[in-house]
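Recall that a protein's primary structure is simply its ordered list of amino acids. Everything else, from secondary elements to tertiary packing, is in principle encoded there. The following example makes that idea concrete.
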Amino acid sequence: MKTISTGRMISQPLSDAEDGEVVWMPAKSIWVGAMTLIALVFGPLTFSWSAFALFVATTAVTICAGHSVGMHRLLIHRSFRVHIWLEHALVYLGTLVGMAGPFGMIYAHDIRDWAQRQTACHDLHAHRRPFFTDAFWQMHCAVALRNPPDFVIEPSIRNDRFYKFVERTWMLQQLPWAILFLLLGGWSWVVWGIAVRISVSLTGHWLVGHFAHRSGQQGWRVDGVAVQGYNLPRFGLVTFGESFHGNHHAFPESAKLGLERGQIDLGWLFIRILAALGLAHGVKLPGNTPRRKGLRRVAGRQEAAAAPSLLSARPHGR
C-alpha cells in the first residue's frame, strides 16, 4: 500500500503505517510509572494548600505556554514565529511537562500524524483499543513499524545546540526545580510540583488523545484518511484549547484551535498577547494556510454559516 509523506516524515516505497508491533519502552514506562506511583502514594500524605496551589500554577504554565503553545503550535507546527530566545523558553517549559525532549516530542507527534493521514494505520496510532489497553500502550509502549518512513528534522531545529542539550537531559530538567521547591516549601512542594504535576499532565494528555480520536463533536471531516479528529468542548478550558482536536485535524497549521463560537482556547489567547506585544509574528490561521485534501464541513447550520469567515480569516502579527 503506497503511503504519502507528511512534512518531516518521508515515505519510502515500502513504508507501511499499519504493519508493526507494539513494544514495551522501559525508560518511558519506568518514568511514567515512578511519577504516578509517587503521586498516588505520597500526594495524599503530603497535601497542603500551598503545594496544591503550586501544582495548579506550574501545571497551567507548563501545559499552556509550554506544551500547547511552545511545543505543539510553535515547534511542531510552526504556526507562528518568535525570537529564538522566546522559542527556547517556551519549548523548555514544554519539556518540563515530562513527556519527552524537543526531538522526541516532534517524532512522537509526527509519526502519529503521518500514520493517521494514511488510508489505514496501526491501532496504537488510532487509539482504537479499549480504554485500559490504550492507556498502557500510549504511556508505556510504542509501535515498532517494520517499514517506517524516514524522519528528517529541519537543520534549524536539528542543529540547535540548546535543543540538543535539552533532548539529552529532559528528565534531569526536573531536578533544579525539585531542589528549588524543596528549599521553598519542603517535600510537599516537591511531590505536588513535580510528581503529581507530571503524572496528571501525562494522563491528561493521553485522555485527550484517546477520546478526541474516537468520537465527539465534529465540525469538519477529512475524507480518505485512517483517523478522524473530534472536539471535546467541555474540556477546552482545562486543556488550553487542545481538546478541539477536530478543528486541529482540519487546520493543523492554525495557531488557533478554538475556531467556533464559545470554544475557549487559552493557548490562542496567549499567542494573541504575544502578538500584541510584538513578540509573535506570522501567525497562521485557517484562512492563510493550505486547505487539506478531502476536508469538508459536516457541522450544523449555524457552524456551516461560519465556515466562510474561518477560511477567510486574516493572520495576526507581521
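The two ends are 42 Å apart (CA to CA). The chain has a mean pLDDT of 94.
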